[in-house]
Amino acid sequence: MSMRPGKLWSRTVFLLILATIASTVILPILYFLTISFASNYEAYQFPAKIFPTFSYSAQLRYNAEKDSYTLLLKKGSTYEAVKTTQDVSDFSLYCKSQLNVLLSSAAVQELFNKAKNTDHALPIKLKKDFFRNYIVFFILAEGSMCALFNSLKAAGWTILISLILGGVSGYIMARYKFKFSNTFSTSLLVVRMFPAVALSLPLVVYIMKMNLYDTSFALAIVYAVPNIALTAWITSSIFKGISVELEEAAMVFGATRLKTLMTITFPLAFPAIIASSLYAFLAAWNDSITALIMTNNNPTLALLVYRTVGSSTIPNLPAAGAVVLLVPSLIFTFIIKNYINQLWGKVAL
Amino acid sequence: MNRMRRAGFFKSPIWFLVPVIIYYAAFWIRPTISVIIESFTDKSGVFSFANYVRLFSQKSMRTAFLNTILFTLGSAILQFILAFALALWLNKKFRFSNLVLFITLIPMAFPPAAVGILWKTGLYRFGWINSFLCSLGLMNPANPVDWMSFRNLYAVILLIIIDTWTVLPSVMIILLAGLQNFNKEFEEAGWVFGANKFQTLKDIVFPIMKPTIITAMILRMIAAVQVWLIAVMIFGYNVVPFLVERIAYNVDVITFAKYARKDAYTISVIVAAIVLISVSIYLRVSGEKQKGGEIA
Questions:
Q1: pLDDT tens digits for A56-73?
Q2: Axis crossing angle, helix A181-193 with helix A216-241, rounded to the nearest 10
Q3: Measured between beta carbons, which residues in chain B are less than 8 angstroms from residue A333?
Q4: pLDDT tens-place string over residues A72-124
Q5: In this complex, do B126 and A45 lie within 8 Å of one another by their Cβ atoms?
Q6: What is the ipTM, given to two decimal places?
Q7: B69 and chain A: CB distance < 8 Å anywhere?
Q8: Which CATH architecture is the domain A138-345 placed in?
Q9: Within an 8 Å CB–CB cutoff, is residue A199 touching chain B?
Q10: I need a surface site. Which of A124, A125, A259, B107 has the fewest CB within 10 A?
């Protein structure tokens, strides 16, 4: 195939850019996922692996003079001794806590007997409990599940408050012209961008008076402040796009105002309502500064993940927490992404 | 409409806005006023600038101010250049451009706490960044760099790069939406009159895109002023002070110190003031175009 040099050149540059983008996005995420599945032993290995492992190639050696057993793990082309013990439960505990391998005492005893009866090192394959970090983080560690539920509750309340108050304002802004409508929509924009930190600090005092300190509902009160405004903006632009004639037609046929809203307007505005709920969810789910200020014993998941990073030296457990934090965020962001295009492309806000 | 007017003032739809107005009065205006009052009074409630004077006499606070400015400007400039280049490139529509768009958007979905951990697992001595550089042969495995020992300007630059990794897509998508609305014929007209690519970009694309660009940049700067979590997750408190990091430090670490609360209040007023100034610039600019403005 003959190509003009110019074309070849631009093609090379093109592929180079493509490779750079792909690797700067995908490589960190791959390494990060792998660390969230790594055992403590693996987390200390250097260089780190890109892909997670499912098992270890290992050897078990019997030391006759001391009546002890040595576990060797494959590292490169050689085997590295990682644990020497005489005790079955000690061995089993090491496998569980450092290697994420679950072996019952009976299974360990069986391996020991086998190793004793062979004169060279016994080759074995240790199967990793793949989701061990996740189980430890969420089920065995106290409070993580509560934190997850707190995050969900806070997000739920935020959606509810923003939809009711913001949706109504959006509808009114779209359908009626009133004296202060410009002032009102401008102040909504200002609220939307106002930093939550500046609200959370003084609000703590009121929240304590209302006996709501350290609850998800109190968090939702703060999260809802910018989100009501956002919901109003998004829904009003959609309501503006739904023609008044359609509503009037329904009323001509005898539907009440409420019935028209329920059967004509809401179904048409449904995508906008979903999009603004997802925005509200993400705002609550991703926040950490408000939760830091307004909670004490009932943190949200994002705050808990942040705290575990501070307290642990190896990042594999918090990484597992962060992956769980990431999943809903990832899904919802990509659902909204389509609305972003729609909102900015066709319906200029 | 006529029917409504006859029904009188009390049936006016504006009454439906009352709950929102009450909500904002209670949970926005009231706390905002009280935080401003707190920041301008001393312990006994007398008006004074003592809080501001005390704050700016602290070295860490001055560093925080400087770092926040550096971080905001640095990340805004870097992200604008990269995002605009990326948006221009992705706007060309090539094979798999949608797939590439999808991949570039992924980091946007990362919650700040996840971004903090992702980069922390990379930056420590035996982390994945060093592993990757070693596997490419760019680093000697016996002597890895400890990225987390970076301080001052280097630490801020590192944080700018991390921040860019996660927010670049959200800047890019706004610019891309602007470019997609952009009428290709303007650009073609430029070419007809003999302008080269750079000239059309400078004289045609930039001026038309200006409101979109300003929207994207102001939104970015408002978020950048409030940076704290990635800095604290990667370096810990006090290493790279930022304005909101100082608030978190006062609330989280020295909770019961004598001036912790007053300091936190005062810094949050400063942050809010910076944000409000940016918003007003934004409103003026978007007002020029007779458009409500785009919000993200």
A1: 888 888 888 888 888 988
A2: 130
A3: 105, 108-109
A4: 888 888 888 888 888 888 989 999 888 888 888 888 888 888 888 888 888 88
A5: yes
A6: 0.84
A7: no
A8: Orthogonal Bundle (1.10)
A9: yes
A10: A125
